[in-house]
């Protein structure tokens, strides 16, 4: 059964070479991070990119392959302008590794394109709904697929993708705020339990496994209590750090 693993805040390890997002993944991967070749970034917010800076830096001498940042073109512009700008952090796209390969490169993800991520595994992106340009990803292996929406507000697009793709068996959706903070959820383009379960209602009769992540720690108890009340027929798990997701 194919699987991916959550490694640190908002990061999902597809295999040794590919990870979705890079929030605090080094504390889990450590030196194994030298194997990483592509980070599939959802969006430019710090909790999803913070370890991009350190993956290339901390084991610099041990790296042999270029770390390729796969992202929306606006996310790439944001990373170039605000992170790897020689002020906040070196521009590693201009710094060669010992073997001459550049330490970092960027590639804009093309919507509608299926990318191979090795040994029968594939990934494709879809547009998200967040305060900055964002991507969600579908990872598939054989007849099985998992959809990871990342930070999102409106769920209509996710629902139509899942309705059209019967191979998707598992969803990873965020739930950042309790429903009592719905205004905050709207302005920051996140979800609450009410918004989440209303949004995915059209998929209720499809037998899908639902993992929930991106819960703000200070609201964790309240959100979990609310999810229990509102989950209806859904098979729900709260995603914990280090957890493996079979799909
Ligand atoms: Zn965000
Ligand atoms: Zn986030």
Describe the protein's topology.
Elements: E1 3-6, E2 12-15, E3 18-20, H1 26-29, E4 38-40, H2 46-49, H3 52-58, E5 67-71, H4 73-82, E6 104-108, E7 115-116, E8 121-127, E9 135-141, E10 144-148, H5 156-164, E11 168-174, H6 182-187, H7 193-199, E12 209-213, H8 220-230, E13 235-238, E14 244-246
Parallel strand pairs: 3-4, 4-5, 5-6, 10-11, 11-12, 12-13
Antiparallel strand pairs: 1-2, 1-14, 2-3, 7-8, 8-9, 9-10
One zinc ion (ZN) is lined by residues 43, 45, 130, 151.
Strand content: 25-35%
Oligomer: single chain
Would you list the SSEs in sequence order as H and E? EEEHEHHEHEEEEEHEHHEHEE
List each distinct ligand once: zinc ion
Strand line-up in the sheet with most strands:
6-5-4-3-2-1-14
Per DSSP E runs of 2 or more residues, the count of β-strands stands at 14
What is the 3D form?
A: globular
Low-pLDDT segments, ≥5 res? none
Q: Biggest sheet: strands, sense, closure?
A: 7 strands, mixed
Mean pLDDT figure: 96
Tally of helical segments: 8
Residue share in helix: 10-25%
Overall SS class: alpha/beta
Give the CA-CA distance, first to last residue.
Answer: 7 Å
């Amino acid at each position: 059964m194919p699987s991916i693993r959550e490694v640190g805040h908002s990061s999902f390890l597809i295999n040794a070479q590919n990870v979705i997002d890079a929030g605090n993944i080094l504390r889990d991967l450590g030196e194994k991070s030298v194997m990483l070749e592509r980070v599939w970034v959802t969006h430019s917010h710090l909790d999803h990119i913070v370890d991009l800076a350190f993956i290339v830096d901390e084991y610099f001498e041990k790296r042999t392959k270029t770390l390729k940042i796969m992202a929306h073109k606006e996310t790439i512009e944001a990373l170039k302008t605000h992170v790897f700008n020689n002020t906040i952090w070196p521009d590693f796209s201009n710094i060669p590794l010992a073997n001459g390969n550049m330490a970092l490169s960027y590639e804009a993800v093309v919507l509608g394109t299926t990318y191979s991520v090795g040994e029968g595994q594939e990934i494709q992106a879809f547009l998200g709904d967040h305060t900055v340009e964002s991507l969600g990803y579908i990872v598939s292996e054989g007849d099985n697929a998992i959809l990871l929406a990342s930070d999102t507000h409106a769920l209509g697009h996710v629902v139509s993708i899942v309705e059209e793709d019967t191979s998707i068996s598992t969803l990873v959706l965020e739930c950042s705020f309790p429903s009592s903070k719905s205004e905050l959820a709207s302005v920051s383009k996140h979800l609450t339990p009410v918004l989440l379960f209303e949004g995915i209602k059209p998929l209720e009769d499809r037998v899908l496994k639902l993992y929930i992540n991106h819960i703000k720690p200070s609201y964790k108890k309240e959100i979990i209590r609310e999810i229990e009340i509102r989950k209806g027929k859904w098979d729900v798990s709260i995603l914990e750090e280090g957890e493996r997701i079979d799909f």
